[in-house]
Design brief:
alpha/beta; disordered N terminus; two-stranded antiparallel ribbon; four-stranded parallel β-sheet; 5 helices; about 15% strand
């Protein structure tokens, strides 16, 4: 994953000094670190997600609110959260070989946000951590009403964020067409899951 310039992190390792150094080096080398807030339904952000230089991602549900399964399991929240991404019933092959199954959790949200960051960097490789943060602030669902402890700036509008990037060497129209094809493929997978 390092070659794409994105690191996905969703564990709870408390080695602050070492991580601060790793994150600073990664950011200085153009890498973006995306980390999950955690699944304890608490006002507490997982360790690495709370550090400077990390995109802190919480989970959203099917109506774009903070994902909560029950009183013990749900998206963690707090003063370090940057944004949310879908965490409810996400298709994956994580637990079943060769078949899709649906899984909940902020690790799924982090995977979704990592994909968005990778897509943005595929259009403009020079995007830094701060550039991604600026895109989140400008093109997320709460960019007008502002940041909140439960959702950060909300769900990023990938289409608008991509459309704002205008590198001369990229065919944005083709990229958007590819995104629509990906969306159709995801809808097909979801339809197949619903039919079982």
């Amino acid at each position: 994953l390092f070659f794409t310039g994105i690191v996905r992190r969703s564990s709870d390792i408390e080695e602050e000094k070492a991580w601060e150094s790793i994150i600073a080096k990664a950011n200085n080398n153009g890498m973006i670190i995306v980390s999950a807030t955690g699944n304890n339904n608490k006002n507490r952000i997982y360790f690495t997600a709370g550090l400077e230089g990390v995109i802190s991602v919480g989970g959203s549900d099917e109506v774009s609110q903070r994902w909560v399964h029950n009183f013990m399991r749900g998206s963690n929240y707090g003063d370090k959260i940057d944004c949310v991404a879908p965490a409810f019933s996400q298709p994956t092959t994580m637990f079943m070989r060769w078949r899709y199954t649906n899984v909940d959790g902020t690790s799924m949200a982090t995977a979704n946000m990592s994909g968005i960051v990778a897509l943005l960097k595929s259009v403009k490789k020079s995007l830094s951590y701060q550039d991604i943060q600026d895109l989140i602030k400008k093109y997320s669902s709460h960019s007008v009403i502002g940041w909140s402890q439960e959702l950060g700036y909300g769900l990023i509008d990938t289409f608008r964020a991509l459309s704002s990037l205008k590198p001369a060497d990229v065919n944005t129209g083709q990229l958007i067409k590819n995104l629509r094809n990906i969306k159709l493929q995801i809808e097909s997978i979801l339809s197949d899951l619903g039919g079982e």
